[in-house]
Queue: 3 jobs
Job 1
Amino acid sequence: MVISKSEFMMFLKHPAWLWLKKFDKEKLPVPDEGLQALFDEGSLFEQYAEKLFPKAAKLGYKNDNEFSGTKYYALPELTAKEIEKGTEVILQGRVEADNITSIFDVLEKTGDKTYDLYEIKSSTSVKPEHIPDLAFQTIVLESAGLSVRKMFVLHVNNKYVRQGEIDPALISEKTDVTEEVREIIEETKENIQKAFEILKEKKMPDLSPRHLKQNAGVIEEWLSIVQAIKGEFPKYSIYKLAGPDVKTIAWLEDNGIELLDDIPLDGPLTEKQLRQVEAMKSGTQHINKEEIKAFLNDLEYPLYFLDYETLASVIPAFDGYRPYQQVPFQYSLHILDKPGGELRQKEYLHTDNSDPVPALLEHLQNDFACPPSLSSGASRRDAKGSVISWYMTFEKARNTEMGKMHPKYEKFLAGVNERMVDLMIPFSKGWFVDKDFFGKASIKSVLPALLPEFSYKKLNISEGGQAQRVWMQTVLRGKDSDKKEKIMDDLREYCGLDTYAMYAILKYLEERV
């Protein structure tokens, strides 16, 4: 049985991940739209990075594990022929030796059967998982009789600013990781043997997340796989603990604890987890009225509830932008002029394939003009009122970036930032805790727990990542042009709920304290 690089990386996450891939892969979920979008971004950057090697022999390109013009099984033979010919640079070849196989991104000849190895990654820096990835590739190549001189990660330079055609040399950055890779070669060889031992097992390994080798970004993904196999967890399962790590999960399982309500308060919990378990045990909301009152008393009318939706891509869509820069294409602004006043909404959605920021800023500045309750002669420099957002760090960063790019709006945007208040604070600081927040403070967690009559689940677009993908596909790439009007209405409905939800949550807080 042969283990590929991608399968080995699965093993490093969780032994059962590899076993399922080999023996029961139907139980592994197919990539959702968000994950597929990440793959697409990687492929997009790869196209530019490969241009750094204009004379290379390209043997195939990846597309859903298939190859255009070159079948996967034929790649080792074709790769061997290119090596024998002394080809200087080979792109996307495959080498197999000792029952392990790997597709490499770039193999550059530096001497007799000696090469530099490049891994192309669409991240903006070297990530920890890139090192064992390259170590596995190096072992495959050297087992096949080649010598690897140096290993590099070819990643995105996020300081690059687009001006006209994309410059492959400037948008990419090369980092030498030879020393780090060589340090773990022996460890990687041992892990390869452990992976083969797992494949000798006739029974699926223990699925517990305690066996995960990584925490960040992996636990939730793995738990979704476990649920697909074993069924939904109870609503208040220990696996719903906020920000769990593998050590905490192992401790809970070792003590036979299955539900949040059964976790002892003197267990190995973070402050956030402790608040969550306390709320679970009491069955009531924890409300620090004094802190919340002080927070509310600092608000100044009129109140502006502001939310942006943004586009972002590894390849900047327009001049003046950096890779992955979040560029607002839409906002919703709900305005409450005075306590008990009538709530009104302003909004803007860019629908053309052009830089959305100039038009968005013009509309935003007009919508932040003095409310009817102020004299018509008041200037924007006299603007007052708290600007309320959820996780204001995001909106403030967008305002700062837009102000630098468009100086005539810089003072206006700086003024908005000075008046900004983060409505997430009462929840992130634990002044208001509900067991059904599950230890989280996102608006998607808070709103349904406090005001279940408002639901994102009823919307065609229900989260920010989806809004970004849909707008980019429809407006920038021209997909679903026959449905564009309906899609734009869906975007307005989604962004509008974000700002209305903040207004509704604020009123809820006022009523409770």
Job 2
Amino acid sequence: MRINVFEVGIIGLLLAAVGAGAVSGFTGLFLVIGHLTALLALFIVVRNLTAKINNKAARLLFALIALLLLIEASIQLLTGLHLNWFVLSLLMEGGLRQNTGLSPSLSAAAILLAGTGLYWLSAKVTASANLFAAPRIIAIGLATAVSTQFVYAVAYYHGSTNAVHVRRSMPFFWTPHPYQSNKLLGYVFPDRGENPFSVSKIPEGGTAFTPERATLTSIRDKTGASPPNILIIVTDSLRSKDIRQNPDLVPTLTAAGQTGYLSLDHYSVSNCTHFSLYTMFTGALPTSYGTARSLKRKTGILPEMSAAGYSVSTAESVSLDWYDLSDIILPTTVQRWVGEDEDTLESDREVTAKTLAQLASWQQSDTPRLHLAYYHGTHFPYSKALGSSTVPNLDLYKMAIGLFDTELAKILTALNELDLAENTLVIVTSDHGEEFFEDGRVGHASRLSNEQVQVPLLILGAPNRLSMPRSHKDIPELIYATINPARPTSQPPEQIYLANCGYDFPGAFSVINAGGRYDFEFNNGYLIPMDPQNGPKQADMRKAATDLLTLIQ
């Protein structure tokens, strides 16, 4: 079988580039080499079969596959994610430019240009060489594919975290469900004994944890006083790191923290908007997001507050329809305003104007109000008014933080001038953080690093008797306890749970407690330690896994 040396060389190099990050230990090296060899053999066979039909179609096939691998390599380099259904779904969601910074027209033009260039090079560089006969190439591809799958199944059966790392990190790598492979291997190998990763069921006598929720049957306490208004201000992608390093970036936030409560060690629970805000308004981990999304089920504190008599409104710089989030967390009766300006600076200013109008209307009504102001200017891409494309993104980001602080100042000033501050619970926070090439990553939704999940939290107007939240999961309890003075106080949980972004269900978790931090991959019902602990720490890790599973199931 003759091959186009240029095409095979390009595909081979690109496969090596997208697979290099998956290498982990000897087992991982074998799996990566075997998988990439099988893919390369598949390309050679399919490309030659296509050439027998039409040479132009064969060159087009090469250009498309090379382009696919280039896109995968770029996504890995910039975000740490892969070209999978989740990433594709991001591109198919509305508001592509606002949420990802990508211009649909420019992206399409770049893809078309790259594909055309590859096709042209394939036609110009026609050097070829004889390779093995077609049956031998097919046999090599099948042998490497089968051996790779077998080694993975055996390694997984025996609890190899290197094998799991390959499955998580290797693009275009599919494996059978472990239930089938483990069942078959059980006939060959001795009893594997205790699950090598973690318990997969709630321990006997345990029950799934459900946050306590009291039905709001009255909007007035026993004294007859009106319950407090609630103002929730969320800005996108605001991490604590820069504020901790330079509090002068946010003078309003810093000053308000002197009279209220300000934490820079707060956790957003997840590193993407739909998961984080779901937890913030429901008190549940986003493990139930997929179910709520598919059922279009109204859930959480906003529908409950509306049913109890609160008037609920929003002002959104960018629509919270992202992944149907609004269908889940917003009540049917909500008064929504959604920005339409493509420039986030102007849209954010409109959010402030709409919020100030809401605050002014609170004076003329005895009905308690809850208003959500959602800002987007701190999310990439930043307003063109901040500077040219030559200004580093981190500098633009810090300027955007300052602009948000300016909008916050207008709202807090209005609360005082309208005499609303004393009877308003104010919560200011962010949905998640952002990375700027810390450890080679940019953006969010890729890993549970502090840059991606540690966000500021400002609380004004909460009763002194209440303990302050440590993560977004605790915020609903703070609101419930604030509006109901008779509600028993409770301490935030000792452990903080983090859930990595996904489409409907998280693919990884972290547990943070007094003993340390424990990171887990979640795969087919099992929690798999990303950093297995030995000695005394192993017991702590297993307890963290058990506690986490009671929340997941």
Job 3
Amino acid sequence: MPNEKKSSSVTDGFHLVVDALKLNGIDTIYGVAGIPITDLARLAQAEGIRYIGFRHEQSAGNAAAISGYLTQKPGICLTVSAPGFLNGMVALANATTNGFPMIQISGSSDRAIVDLQQGDYEELDQMNAAKPYTKASFRVNKPEDIGIGVARAIHAAVSGRPGGVYLDLTADVIAATLDSDAAKKSLVRVVDPAPRQIPDPDSIERAIDLLADAQRPLIILGKGAAYAQADDAIRKFVETTGIPFLPMSMAKGLLPDNHKQSAAAARSLVLAEADVVMLIGARLNWLLAQGKGPHWSPSAKFVQVDISPTEIDSNRAIAAPVVGDIGSTMNAFVSALRPGQIQPKAAWIDAIAEHKQHNVERMATRLNANPNPMNFYSALRAIRDVFADKPDMYLVNEGANTLDFGRDIIDMHQPRKRLDCGTWGVMGIGMGYAIGAAVVSGKPVVAVEGDSAFGFSGMEIETICRYHLPVVIVVFNNGGIYKGDDINRSGSKDPSPTVLMKDARYDKLIEAFNGVGHHVTDPKGLTKALTDSLASGKPALINCTIDPTAGTESGHLQNLNPQTKVNRQ
């Protein structure tokens, strides 16, 4: 390892990387140690940066990404070269897709050997491999450029629409030495890395005029609105205008789910009948059916608030684009509004209220049933009731049915407390997100996982226990992907492609690492196990037995999973 104390005349790349990160307020690194970055992790820890060591780079990257989302500072993931780099790339690409600021720093092999493909240890041209999946990809080839490299990575990660950035550090660079005075002068403290982007006043007026003329207006809040931390301005605009709002999954809690203007329980109605739709930090991607098809009125007009001008007109014509950062933009809307200028028609509000009431009553019937064994409704009802008394807890949610039902059943009352698979719909984010949220906030985190989804990152329960994090994992165990009752159509003894081990006891896994395991089979037992686990503050895992016949193929996305139409005899 490099000397703990620098020489008065020389330093090295290891120290420069740590100094550059500290100079820019980076206080935590998530990663997996190994060649050639082991000593970088040790030195960062010695110099006061918290290092959280994972069992797999993808989980480390997911923790870095979600910490970036929660703090608006780039989360840092540190990986080894080639295979470790590629493991981290899944999380980095997911961060870019979701708009989370993250920097993956990876060690890499000897450039001269890599470029001639002469077979170095873990040889890979990592910088170019990363480019298609990131906002920016940089390589540092000289130690005196480390400060600039870190600064450029920070700017790229957090400016405009945030995203993933790759920073390549060759083994030669981090081991190289240089004069201490020259090294100090080479460091860069980033100033205003995410400058405000003020919207054009004309675009604000155009949008207000369109909303004022609307008969059936609707606001859709996306996770970009949650990321912006412009909570007061968004809430004031929504409540001043009286426009019904629909929160996307990770925007739940920007306004409480029980807010009178929430149209979440009337989603199908408002999407199909709204005549003017205002998108705030939400994209017309697959999560909103690209704004097309039977889910939408073909005559609907759109207001879109987005920091990226290239997002405008991506799927539907946008009648009133407003380009700017959401904080500045929503403050501009609030300032420009005149009293009573926007007033949704009473018939629209009444229609939504009637539709909500019908759906709430139908949901209540399902939630109040107590089937044996439990299904998703009864199990999630038990979790919902615990969350009702603890609104400041974080919820991480992934799976197919576990995710889809959880989004509809567990209410959120505070912003940025619900964390899920987001735009890509990728499984495996659970443990990384839970660890990142616990490290950033110090608050309890409940990860509600499908049994299949848990398998992608389940070994990180050792990480949770090693760092004594206040994370409680609830595994909805129905013995399969989607459900556990499928059969092998060949007649052989092998299980179906979607079937997992029947009666698996995931709670025993965490007990191997001195965590607390619970096995529950009914809602009452689940409520008690979750309440007790949260009160203890210790890592815990609750194995929650669910009816193997419960659930549907692909959750709520059956239309995206083509099935054979030919039955071969």
